[in-house]
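Researcher: Last one for today. Full complex below.
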Amino acid sequence: MTVKFCWFNLMPWPDLPDDFKTEHRSVWVDIDSSLFDPERANGVYHEYMDQLEFADELGFDGIGVNEHHQNGYGIMPSPNIIAAGLARRTSQAAICVIGNSIALYNPAHRVAEEFAMLDCISGGRLVAGFPVGTPMDTNFTYGQIPALTREKYLEAHDLIMEAWTNPDVFAFDGKYNQLRYVNCWPKPIQKPHPPIYIPGGGSIETWDFCLERDYNYSYLSFNGYLAGQTLMDGYWNRVAEMDKSETPGRAGFAQIICTAATDEEAEELYSEHMLYFFNRCLHVFPGFADPPGYRTVKTIQAGKLDQFRKENQALFKRLTWKDLVEGGYVIAGSPDTVRERMEDMIKRLRVGTVFCLLHMGNMPDWKTRYSSQLFAEKVMPGLRGIWGDEFSDAEDWWCRPMAERVRPEATIAEARRYPEMPNGPAA
Amino acid sequence: MSATDTAPAPAFEEILVTTRRSVTAPVRIYEPTSAQGADRSTAATVLALHGAGGWMPAEPVLDGLVEAGFRIVAPVWPAWSEHTDESRLSEMLDFALHGWDVATEMGLVGGGLHLVGHSMGGMIAAEMAALAPQSVGRMALMCPAGMWLADHPIPDIFAMLPYQLAEVLFADPNVGEEVLTGGADFSDNATLTRFMVARARQQGMAGKILFPIPNRRFSERAYRVTVPTLLVWGRQDRLIPPAYSDAWQAALPDASVRLVDGAGHMLPYEQPAAVVDAITAHLHR
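Model: Here's the assembly. Have a good evening.
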């Protein structure tokens, strides 16, 4: 198998003020609406979508979007809208929607339908993510009851999977979704279903959920790979305990990456934007982080309490560029430096998919493209083969597109000429 | 559970009750002592329901009602003990029926059982009364949850940090701090884990009827609550402000209001004497 690289854009709002951290309570849930400028957003959305399309041209294996609500670092409450745009303008990269917070949809069958549409439009390029969802999104913004969120999530999962795989019309009598006629129309191209990615933040129940069903588990954290190792070690221990294959395709990781000509240039170009991200975008009121009932007793007892310690609440405020780089929050530097650290990361965490956060915070377009292009041309090729031939491509948890699929970015001009109309092609 | 020689004797006996839904949880029974002049066999029984904080180490209102001659049955709600059957209760109807299920096991149905509840417990008591008004004698609700007034939004306790709670729960936050933390040392990992687990279970359970808006449409059923009901409210309640007492009084067919000075949302712990006087007078009427 080859390592898969997915170019990911969180779509942060780029204009959070300098005093955001001191003058505002939270970047999420109750963020001040006056900070959002819809006319500015016109350009921002297109810039971000252009970057995702550029990543396709650069040869990234996937382009990725996700779902957040009322969030200053993610102006993408509907990733499916962005994904639809990408499916129409690209034809190579996987469309990674990581994902839809399936407990939020009523009925959850909506996700089965929209993902099936995306898979059809993209010619089988969908990678389907099913996050439980953060408390900020799921509970405080979308009003789901914390203690029932996981149960609702599991039911939504069962409904969607049956909607995709059961060829018959069926009735679904759930606690949260009652549907007399489930008949998912359209159905996805990929059979039995698109690859399923479960983005996790550290709930240990999620490991068993993934392993029992052979889904990819992707640890999405902004704390970097050094901090992520403890958790990923726990995951791989669980893989061994459950006697599952140890193919790296089972695991993914999100990593912030900054590539430049030299290590010094990386600091010069990207430092301010990383600090913007860590100091402003991650300024979440801690009361929104853990509504009682959201985390299970098992997870709490496993000791994942660090984020609730007072001394850690101010952690990001103190971080400097040096801290970010040395602590592994950010992999930054020349192509050689980045390649070396990426290799370390991929091997340490044993991952088959890397979600590459190459746009962060308020990075301007040109820097994003510069970093992405250097990474694609000088870093990525040397990393793809890290896992050698030990594992087959069938174990890569990746999409299986149609060979003869529509390539809309190439055919759109032709399609507009209406060649088959009686009067011949339009002028 | 019996009293030890070293600790002050609790005023109650605690037994384990398993309902027909197969939910097991403790129930505390406070018997009026004969020295206080009440005859156990004829004493009126009060079913007392605690708020989202659970029963506190000291329950002066329950003690006061026992002294006034009432027998008190005080269930520990599922999730507020080490018994873990709370997943069997998901929604408001389950909560209200669980109250009746406990009352049934205790042989309390059919005899004019009085209901007393604080905050979340008041919300459950009111729903119990709406389900089976003929089984209720009188009812006293201390600043019950269960309604939402757009002009008086209730602060979101589920998004509060522990240090922010005292300010909204108590008329005097300094007193509140002491009551809420009980002197626990949260720098100790085991203590913090225990606290977080209890919080996840208990407040998670409370969230099933209180999150994200503590309104499960009781007002549409309030017309059924024909039992005489006393609403006791702290004048300084900053969680569910006294404006809500008007809404409850308007919704209930037979309700009166008693506002208590020097009390916030935790009024049974802040002004227990005034609360006991008001409830006793109401139940004895």
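The mean pLDDT of chain B is 92. The first helix of chain B runs from residue 60 to 67.
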